[in-house]
Amino acid sequence: MIPAKTTERREFYSSLAPYYDQIYGFIDYRKQARLFDILFKRFGSSGGKKLLDLCCGTGSHMVYLKELGYVPTGFDISADMLAVARQKLPYTPLIQGDLRDLKLSERFDFISCWFNSILYSRPKEVFMRTVKQVWAALDPGGVFLFDVVDKRIGIGAAEKTYESCESGIEITFRPRWFYRGTGEDLELVIRFTFNGKDGVKEWVDRHLLCALTFAEVEEMMRSIGFETSWFDKNYEAPVARAGDGYRSIVVCKKTE
Q: Which of 54, 113, 138, 233 could form a disulfide with 247 if both were Cys (CB 3.0 to 4.6 A apart)?
């Protein structure tokens, strides 16, 4: 067995790119895209369907949003992830870049960012800088749609286990959130095990994210000028956020 190792995020996802879609095969991207479309139609009023998908990974959301009439552009830090996206979307513009240093010259009707990836913009001042760039890149009436976790998700959180098997490769990944109760760092630790013809390989992937409460996110978005609406992380249908859950979908409209 190869000893477990910790890698930088960019290097790790270069290694992970060929297996990414298998690992997350349980995700119904088509269903999620339909929900995104419902929310955009409900809140957007820019008059177009030009889409920027931040941290787009292998492009699965863009595939289904394109089927729904959107004109997508993808943005991701990993050239290897974008190479997989290119196979799915050969004529779609794809941009390699770092969300923490986001600079956009084009304007869009719809900007999305999924799997809590907006929190890679850390610490708070970098998060604020990123969402200001998003605001500037939206046409009036445009929508910024993202999901986010409250930092309290990392207090006493248990490890979860997901498994998949395809083409003779068994993959197990075990994510767990950590937050120490103070400070600006929320950590997501994912342990991966690959069991295939080359034996067993293990990785430990550590993601440092911006630790924010929902109230802090709300305050920052409104300070920029966004109108916000919060929904439960339920992809069956839009359900207004209620209760004390620590996962949410946020719709931010750029006022006209």
A: 233
Residues above pLDDT 90, as percent of the chain: 75
Task: Report residue 128 as tokens.
Answer: 């604020």
The sign of the CA dihedral 78, 180, 147, 158 is: positive
What percentage of the chain carries pLDDT values higher than 70?
Answer: 94
Burial 229-238 (b: 16+ CB within 10 A, else e): bebbeebeee
Beta pairing, strands 71-76 & 50-54 = parallel
What pLDDT, on the 0 to 100 scale, is given for residue 22?
77
pLDDT score at 17 = 77
* CA pair distance 226, 232, nearest whole angstrom: 19
The better pLDDT of the pair 11, 247 is held by 247
- Domain ranges in the chain are 12-150+213-254, 153-209
pLDDT surpassing 60 at residue 8? no
Contact in structure between 238 and 39 (CB atoms under 8 Å): yes
Two tokens at 82?
């974008």
Judged against a pLDDT cut of 80, whether residue 9 lies above it is answered with no
* 12-150+213-254 and 153-209: identical CATH topology: no
**Annotation: CATH topology of 12-150+213-254:** Rossmann fold (3.40.50)
* Angle in degrees, CA 138, 140, 142, rounded to 5: 55
Q: Is the peptide bond before 123 cis (omega within 30 degrees of 0)?
A: yes
Residues with Cβ within 8 Å of residue 129, at least 6 apart in sequence: 102, 121
Look up residue 25 and give its DSSP letter.
T
Q: Which amino acid is at 214?
A: F
pLDDT over threshold 90, residue 116: yes
153-209 under CATH 1.10.472.10, yes or no: no
